[in-house]
Amino acid sequence: MQRISVQSEDFDVGAEYRRLCSDAPGAGAVATFCGLVRDYHDAGSSDAVRELQLEHYPGMTERCIGECLRQAQQRWKLLAVRVIHRVGSLRPGEQIVFVGVASHHRADALQAASFIMDSLKSEAPLWKKQCSSSGEEWIDIRDSDREALSRWSAAAE
Amino acid sequence: MQRISVQSEDFDVGAEYRRLCSDAPGAGAVATFCGLVRDYHDAGSSDAVRELQLEHYPGMTERCIGECLRQAQQRWKLLAVRVIHRVGSLRPGEQIVFVGVASHHRADALQAASFIMDSLKSEAPLWKKQCSSSGEEWIDIRDSDREALSRWSAAAE
Amino acid sequence: MLQIHYFASVREALGRGEEQLELPAGVTTVAELVGHLREADAAFDRLHEGSRPVLVAVNQVVANRLGKIADGDEIAFFPPMSGG
Amino acid sequence: MLQIHYFASVREALGRGEEQLELPAGVTTVAELVGHLREADAAFDRLHEGSRPVLVAVNQVVANRLGKIADGDEIAFFPPMSGG
Fold first, then answer.
1. Is D81 within 8 Å of D61 (Cβ atoms)?
2. What residue in A sits closest to B114 (Cα-Cα)?
């Protein structure tokens, strides 16, 4: 059981958690991750972010997230997975992304949630533009995000 | 900001998530883990579990969980942490344990949640007794739980 | 006919999000299509001189320079992903 | 006086959850206290013959056999933890 949504509307973490539990009645573990818009991008920058614009490639985004989930299902024993990614205009403090995983054992749920976040960040066609008092700027992928994903391929060898 | 509860009452994952967000207003990442009572203990066993009794050492449990959180705070940059562990009589499907972590970046929240679960399982004085049609049985710590915790000490070296 | 999409900084640099293009004669790979577009469009050419790589997807799958292109394909150009 | 607690399978095997004990003469370590209790109580002795280890906490901190014991301490005996 897996559900993927790319949407401009906000989501309710409590409701998503309850749905994972009902999608996976025998689960012993449910891990969730929620990403929120921070009010700065780089620790060194003093510019407060006023808005984040999230653009995506409709169709390909859902397909790429589906491929991340397929890989996660191959590596871990998962009972239910939920991914929501918001697009459009977001403000600091708002929810951007949700990953929820239900499994029998805790290591599967926690590792899969971590893997799904790492892979969708580098592989799903989504782009963030940050608007602050000093102007607008497209955000580049962080080196740490590239490294986060490459760790998983090393672990699989 | 950290909150620890050892209680017989159930808890609301959505409400705990919202409290983590308000405890950590600048957070970019919130990871949660919830453990549920499974209806079997070992995959090989066909005995359906009817009840799980959770006994603890009042005072020492809170102290040990606090020590797990202190270690997590030293290893990762965390903005807010919440742990709830239920005690008393639980039925299959019920929530047993909640760990929630808010941080700036996703790796801190996800790794700390995983570490806290691994360490409280092996270090907090809580014991599970499983009641099924074939009788009552105290559950022993799994080898996999011991290994899960020892991985973290190896990672710190 | 190719259906071409541009996203994010690529879309902004070109001033358009999509267009249709008659499959140019002799173009069978991503590298050949990119070569054709760089010659035909100065703004597209400048994109490839910049520090931010331009990625290509053929029919919604990321492709390298050797990726095959055929009439009717959906092609997209965009910078590295930064979602999540 | 020592305040002694027993938990889980240890509590059930002994049939009691807590008791008070006058600090026995010559007992200054966990190992000496365990030795004293094994001599004084056959059920406690049998616990230490079993396959499941018996852990000891002194004042709510897990102690090894060399851990110090003094009058007024809170001592607890229990099997390995299995919470979470």
1. no
2. A110
Does C84 map to a domain? no
Closest CA to B118 of B72, B78, B75: B72
Q: What is the pTM of this model?
A: 0.93
Q: Which residues of B touch A36 (CB under 8 A)?
A: 21, 27-30
How close is the nearest chain B Cα to the Cα of D49, in Å? 17
Per DSSP, D68 falls in state B
pLDDT < 70 stretches in chain B: 41-46, 156-157
Chain C residue whose CA is closest to A141: C82
Q: Where residue D48 sits, what CATH number does that domain have?
A: 3.10.20.30
The shortest CB-CB distance from B33 to any of A12, A38, A106 is to A106
In a domain, D84, yes or no: no
Task: State yes or no: ipTM above 0.95.
Answer: no
Q: Which residues of A touch B90 (CB under 8 A)?
A: none
- The answer to whether residue C51 neighbours chain A at the CB level (below 8 Å) is no
Chain C contact set for A140 (CB, 8 A): 52, 79-80, 82
Cα Rg of chain C (Å, integer): 12
Residue C45 lies in a domain: yes
| The domain defined by A2-156 carries CATH number 3.90.1170.40 | yes
Q: Mean pLDDT in each 10-residue stretch from start to end of chain D (84 residues)?
A: 97 96 96 96 92 94 96 97 93
Number of H helices, E strands in chain D: 3, 5
